[in-house]
Structures are given as C-alpha cells and as structure tokens.
Amino acid sequence: xxxxxxxxxxxxxxxxxxxxxxxxQVTHPVIVVGAGPIGLATAIDLAQQGVSVVVLDDDCTLSxxxxxxxxxxxxxxxFDRLGCGERMVxxxxxxxxxxxxxxDQEVYNFDLLPEAGHHRPAFINLQQYYVEGYLFDRAxxxxxxxxxxxxxxxxxxxxxxxxxxxxxxxxxxxxxxGEYRTTARYVVAADGSRSPVRKLIxxxxxxRTFKDRFLIADVKMTADFPTERWFWFDPPFHPNQSVLLHRxxxxxxxxxxxxxxxxxxxxEKAPERVIPRVQALLGPNAKFTxxxxxxxxxxxxxxxxxxxxxxLFAGDSAHGVSPFGARGANSGVQDAENLAWKLALVLAGxxxxxxxxxxxxxxxxxxxxxxxxxxxxxxxxxxxxPVSRVxxxxxxxxxxxxxxxxxxxxxxxxxxxxxxHDSTLNTxxxxxFAARMVPGTACVDAPLSRQGRDGWLLPRLGGxxxxxxxxxxxxxxxxxxxxxxxxxxxxxxxxxxxVTPDAEAGEDTxxxxxxxxxxxxxxxxxxDAAPGTVYLIRPDQHVCARWRNVDAAAIAAAxxxxxxxxxxxxxxxxxxx
Length: 577
Hints:
The protein is α/β, with parallel strands linked by helices. Helices cover 27% and strands 27% of the residues. The chain has helices at 37-48, 73-82, 85-91, 128-139, 196-201, 271-282, 328-347, 355-381, 386-399, 403-406, 478-488, 503-506, 522-526, 552-562; strands at residues 27-33, 53-57, 70-72, 93-95, 97-102, 105-111, 123-125, 145-149, 152-159, 168-175, 178-189, 205-220, 229-233, 242-248, 252-258, 289-303, 307-308, 311-313, 319-320, 447-450, 453-456, 465-470, 494-500, 514-517, 534-537, 543-547. The strands form 5 sheets. Strands 1, 2, 8, 9, 10, 11, 17 and 18 form an 8-stranded mixed sheet that branches. The chain has an 8-stranded mixed sheet with strand order 6-5-13-14-15-12-16-19, with helices on both faces. A 5-stranded mixed sheet has the order 24-23-22-25-26.
C-alpha cells in the first residue's frame, strides 16, 4: 500500500441496488455524507460495532495538498482503536517540541509531551491525503461499509416523530446515471465547511470571519531543520507578518506565510511570488520544488445545534476554527468517536434516542472551547490595532527571560481534548481523588505488561464500557467477582480490566479476566489509584465515574446513567451521606 499515490487516486462510480427498478428498497441504519477523515472515521467506528453504513461522497478522489497535517495524540489513540493508527504513525513525522521566534531570535521553546511512558507522540505531521487513504483502506476491509462515489445529496426529507421507530430520513442523490432516493434511520453529515446537507436543512453556522489571508506552500527539499514546529513573529525575511514551518513525510515541508487582508489571493499563488518568499526563509542556496500552493482565509464559527431530528452534524460541517492550534480535524475525529458508540447503542435498542442529544451537547461544548482558544490565537498572531501589536511584542520580549510571560504567548495553543465536566452522563464523585482524571476526561495512556509481553493501557479500553480495577482479581471476594462477571454478560456489557502492581498477579492464571501488571507504577500514578480503586470508562475512552472500592451495583447504576437509561426522577445522582 505504501506505493499508492493517494493524491492522484480516483475511484470508480458504480450504480447501487437502489437505482435498479428491481432493487429492493431498504432503510439503512446509518448513511454518512462525506468520505473525508471525519466521515470515514465515523463509518469505521460504527462498522466495528456491527452497524451497517453507507457512505455517500460527491467526488471520486481523496484530498490534495497538505491541508490538515497535525494529528494530536488523542486522535492517534482513536486511530489505533479504528485499526489504522500504527500505519499513520509509521508514515508520519513525530514531533513534541515547538519553538517561538521574535524576528531572528528564539523567544522560548516547549515540549508537549515532557513525560515518558506514552505509546504515541504529542503530534505527528501527515498530509491529509494519507490520512484519508489509510482510513479508506481500513474501511474497505470491513464488509458492512459501502462507499458510493459521485453520489451527491441534493434533497433531504425527514419523516416520523424523532425518537420513534418509524422516524426516517430520505435523501435524494444525484449520480452520473440520474437521481435516486435512499432512506436511513440516521444521517451523519460530515460533508465539510460548505455542507450541502446543512443548506438543505436550512440552517447556518454563526461566528466570526477573520480579515486576513495566509499562503500555504508545500515545498519538497532535503534540509537539516530539526523535526519541530517553528513559528516566527515578524521575521526579517517576512517583516510585519508571521510564518509557520512544519516538516511532513516524503521530504515535504509546509510553510504558512501570513499575507494580510489586502493580498491578492490569485496573484499570491503564482510561482514568481511564492518562490522568492520561500527562498528568503530557506536561504539563497536552498534547492526546492513547489508541490502545492493555496491561499486561505478562515472563520471561527459553529452551528447552534449539532442535531436536527435524525440528522447529526460532525467535523467542519458543524464547526470551523482557524488553522492555528490544529483543532479542526482533531476535534472532528473526536466528534466521530463521541457519536459512533451512542448511535450503535440506540440502533441496537439498548439506549434511548435521547442519548444522541448528549452527542450534540458534549461536542457543542468542545467546539466552543476550540473556538475560544482558536480566536485567542488568531487575535494574538494577527493584531488588528497598534495597542494590541504593542502588547503582543511586549509579551514576546518578556517571554525570553520570564516564565509568566510565556503563558501569555499564543502562537496557536495546540489541540487537547475537551474535559466534559458537566456532561449529564457523568456520575458525581463520592470519594476524594486528585483532580487530573475527573469524570469527563479522556483517558491517558500508561505502559503495562502481561505474561512477559509489553503493552499499553489504552488498547484495553474503548469500544465498550470498561470497569478499570486497580488490583488483582484475587483481591476481591467471590461475590464481587461474580457481580462483575454478571455485568460483563449484560446486554450493554461492562468488561473488567485489572491493573495490579504485583508482578505475580499480573502473570496469574485468571484467563477469564484481563489482568495487567503496572510495572512502572505509572497507571496508578496517573489515575491516582489505590488498591481497590475502580474507574468506569465509556466506549470513547472518557471517564464517566470512579470510586475507591469495587461496588458492582454502583457501577451498574453509573452505566445506566451513561447510556441515558436513568429515570429523570433519579438524576442527578447524589453521593451517599
């Protein structure tokens, strides 16, 4: 697969069964509109949980150029669960260190992953067409995903009362052979910032458009720059503007030049304009070729509501941010993960339709956090008044020698997963814990071992509910083990995973349980775990409850809350006196 030119790969249009007069008309469980990273991630996640998915895309190619290139550790953890993370990491350029410059002097540097004991780096750089290509390769391994190329959605009707079994969405789809109609219980709109589905529903996104232009130049060259993120404010080779440099695979380097609002977006893409800018950065003797050039503007905005009946919006169709901070694609992949497990449970009849409302609320909260940080980055990078410019330069000057000022420097505060503090799916804490892994937090990784083999914590979690128990099965009495076993065989199972500091317990013969040795003690440290501590982990690897003792009834109640089956009169849950 490594020899495939994903930028130039094209896919054949093929008529589907619904276009045949004799074809049986079926109602698909889920139709995903858009075969970009978010649409494919959603489809793969659903398919791995047994849901059949149809993906519609109005094109027949993958992305061109670098576009989204920075993929964060949390996204890589999700890609691992989808079955393509290792391939992306092997191809991508790993980096943890960033450097900030004012003119020709380094202001300071930072390390986004300063501690050891994590499977994945803070970020990799990988061109979007590789990400889409690897996701596509994974999708076609799954028999319950059907991708239909050159299928453009031109009509949408919703029938039935939302939340009832008769509710449906009917799409009118335009193809080279004419139009046809297809029906689904749910539609996921992952069709990008210009979302045709959003227009068909008649809703808009709201926010702020920034009056500035940036040039992306993908440059192929051999250079001795380190694999780091370099950001310049007001560099001598591009005065009064900013520049960002990233290394990508295949000896391709991405350079973003701020141009200003008055720049001509067509003229600035001409090689005679681009090459001198690149030469000024790299030096007069640098040898390079231009791979791809684009001029962009951006907005920070979102839809008011990510759910409209049985149509759910994810990724750029739902929200948009500036490129500073790598928040676009990363947050979209997190949308997909949040949505997929909830859709799967609702479709299986194990959770009420209202569980999908929590997708909208949780990801709207995350979008607001991303927009807030992205807007601050943009305002810092592109000051629009003399006063804000003076403030920015003063902060940068002070940051060379003073740690407090470095907290104010914003060259694109980089993507981190939102902590869903106020999610209605969380269970209130009744015991004292260190703050880091509060309910709503995405789980962090830690090294583990089992029967002489090294492993990691996160692959033990995800795709199901997990009771993460710190201690060996032998530390529990028979009734507690029996209760955990019953939970594991429930219609919505909670699977126990044991993590113990005892090497012998980690190698024991409890084959019916997943028992792992916390050899370095990092799992217990990161989860503030004492013997008997238990965490309930959602299928999207977010903490939804934690206790200091194993109580199967409490775990079951928290699971019911996390899938929306708790009766309203019992919510919110309170700690016992």
